[in-house]
């Protein structure tokens, strides 16, 4: 179990699979390079090229308007729609351009720790969101500065419990010793750590809720004329940036608690506050097991075997102290990860789909309005997760990613890239899409392959780029051929190529990775 | 081309042998095995059978200013500027029972004139005091609870989705139609593909072809061939790859449902009612009315109206006959009123049940910004030709301070799951034995008895 894949099994197909799952796919050239690295220097070298902690995010700073943190209502803060679109564009751009695994993990966290922008007010929500995402992406990038500050799920959950965005989303700021709100305590156990039916009781939920009481948000003196003016709390430490979180000791329940059957932390202390509760939770193997289950579902397949989970959970808790990248390294090296039941068996979620298209055709993230319009249609507006448990998982059953409306859109959207056609989107997006730069058609379909006689070679080339894991079926090739010849004759070969791309990207097979 | 594959067609076809079914989408395929094996109450569709319109009011509708206890001194005292009374022209609808054992004089918001008409003609009932235990005051979470019908737990599937899981194996791909960008959790199946479609406008729910010369063969025909829907030898379903097969079936589903919607839209022709208002909601309900007129194979429609989160500007300039809530109820009244008239003209009013709900009501007291904050219990409207109209169900909550929950919110006395159950059992004709499947979490048996509003 979890033994490394033997070197002789390494193939271009498996390299493609690795790049799909540890990132968002790539061009045929990128995939070939990864394959050759694994072939010449060993699979571990290929895996390490993706798992290495190198991403500092220095090339992807916050937009200028968001940097004016000390004055969140200053001139640079435009309308809500502009801010929202700018944020989503920033997020997608660093997914597209950053280290693939850092992007892929950030997206995992965005789902695992879903926050809703509607829960905070217009003066703070974007600041909260940037800070929240910044923390997620730093943890996703791993222990870059080798201080152990970032890259562990245990530290991340603690950071999230102090994050303004989650404190608002789960009502934690309302929870005081005298007036407990259980929302955060429940989700801490149910969503973030132990899992549904993870062996905790309602009393455990209550104890967790009590431990996290008195976490408040420091309400800055807003310069905005219409903003409610509130006095800074006396408990906010000196020099705290505006709209930060802090502990109000007067509203904290400081009584000793019992949780998950323990009344002491593993270190032997009384269980008083949130930190203590987390020590107990993260010492519990169910926590490690649930988090491994969730990671496995995201990166590998929906139904990991129990024995495998146990093994992973022990490593995650005891060997890696919840550091994520070493665990992923084990996974990406393992035979199980490359099993036939895994390769090409995952449905792309909305971001996977778009980023796969962009990396395959080597294009930039669409302009802001079109990006938002596309995400709305696909059901991935990052400001509004469908519910507190995040977006649907990328596996099949009951999956709303593929409800009829979004499915129709997935099939239609190919022409955004093939024909710069956004007529089925809203007004602003149509104009933006028409401005997209032309794709490199010569790279996608070399001129010498464009005659009807060379169609089999052309299809091979297109398969390699767009459907490397599930090539077209004969019946599909036949249908495409008739269309290709017809359009080439009536319009042009380039138009016929575009038609092929549009039809291939619309296929159900294209939705898989 | 099988552009309009009805259940009847399917049953006819299946009699010819199992070979045909190989090319069918999952929800039809399953039928072959399930129709005979399981006793189901397949919801009727198209030209016959009940239709349910779920009308979601997003943001938390202020029930107290919708079904108004206008002469209650606690109400008038708690809402010095927001209160609505006879001077503002509230529309009295008589006395309803309250939880204290007495009655409450109730009136509708002055803008709900069409509602009052339906009440007077016996076509509208009101369920007061609806909510759930330990109410959650987050929009987000409370909507999850209403959609999943599993309050105080993490939502995994929707109540309508589970209704289909239990009763609708073999239903049309368009069994439910929702007008929205993203499917509501309420429609989500607990396993497999929900036979429902969600789209924002029919324009987007269609194949987007290019119109240059050389493209005489429509995109739709090409798609059908490529995904194996019309292909003589290629079923398009790869049974060796379960998740791929799921997507392939989803594509088939999309293909069939777009065709169904387009056909019904064509068949529907012009609407009969002439005075439809122009609000966004009216536009959505017009589309639904059009599809109903075209006998679309659909039993559940789902429409949304947002904006009820009236923390401020609920009224303007201290005039309770202005502001956001005033406008929202005007639009709601106009759109639902027109929809009811249209259904009557189509001769379908007896087949329709409209159910309104919001994720929560609002607090008894007004806040410092001329608005109201998130609360708990609410009132639901039930409308339709067969509704036991002009009647109150549930009890009006006690407004007094000691009876309030969650800081000044009204407490519930009817669990919303009971309302859902009543709709399924008394309107959609679902057997009581299916309720354990559809509602894994239930209130106590005595609180879970169907309410006879229809």
Helix content of chain A: 40-55%
Approximate strand percentage of chain A: under 5%
Mean pLDDT of chain A, to the nearest integer, reads 91
First-to-last CA distance of chain A = 24 Å
Work out the helix count of chain A. 24
How is this structure best described in words?
- The complex is a heterodimer of chains A (513) and B (454).
- Chain A is 51% helix and 1% strand.
- With 513 residues, chain A is mostly helical.
- Chain A folds into four domains: 7-51 and 286-338, no CATH class; 66-193 and 195-283, no CATH class; 350-434, no CATH class; 441-511, no CATH class.
- Chain A has a two-stranded antiparallel ribbon.
- In chain A, α6 crosses α7 and α23 runs antiparallel to α24 (493-505).
- Chain B has 454 residues and is of the alpha/beta class.
- Chain B has one domain (52-210, 270-316, 323-448): Alkaline Phosphatase, subunit A, CATH 3.40.720.
- In chain B, strands 1, 5, 6, 7, 8, 9, 10, 11 and 12 form a nine-stranded mixed β-sheet that branches.
- The two termini of chain B are 41 Å apart.
- Chains A and B meet through α10, α18 and α23 of A and α5, β7, α7 and α8 of B.
Write the layout of secondary structure elements.
The complex is a heterodimer of chains A (513) and B (454).
Chain A: H1 12-22, H2 28-41, H3 43-51, H4 64-67, H5 80-97, H6 100-112, H7 125-141, H8 153-162, H9 164-169, H10 183-193, H11 202-211, E1 215-217, E2 245-247, H12 274-283, H13 285-299, H14 306-319, H15 324-333, H16 350-361, H17 368-378, H18 404-412, H19 414-418, H20 427-434, H21 441-444, H22 455-466, H23 474-490, H24 493-505
Antiparallel strand pairs in A: 1-2
Helix pairs in contact in A: 1-2, 1-3, 2-3, 3-15, 5-6, 5-7, 5-17, 6-7, 7-8, 10-11, 13-14, 17-20, 23-24
Chain B: H1 7-14, H2 26-37, E1 51-57, E2 67-68, H3 73-78, E3 91-97, E4 103-108, H4 113-120, E5 124-131, H5 139-148, H6 159-167, E6 176-179, E7 196-199, H7 219-226, H8 242-268, H9 280-293, E8 300-305, H10 324-346, E9 352-358, E10 378-383, E11 392-394, E12 414-415, H11 416-427, H12 435-438
Parallel strand pairs in B: 1-8, 1-9, 5-11, 5-12, 6-7, 6-8
Antiparallel strand pairs in B: 2-4, 3-4, 5-10, 9-10
Helix pairs in contact in B: 4-10, 8-9, 9-10
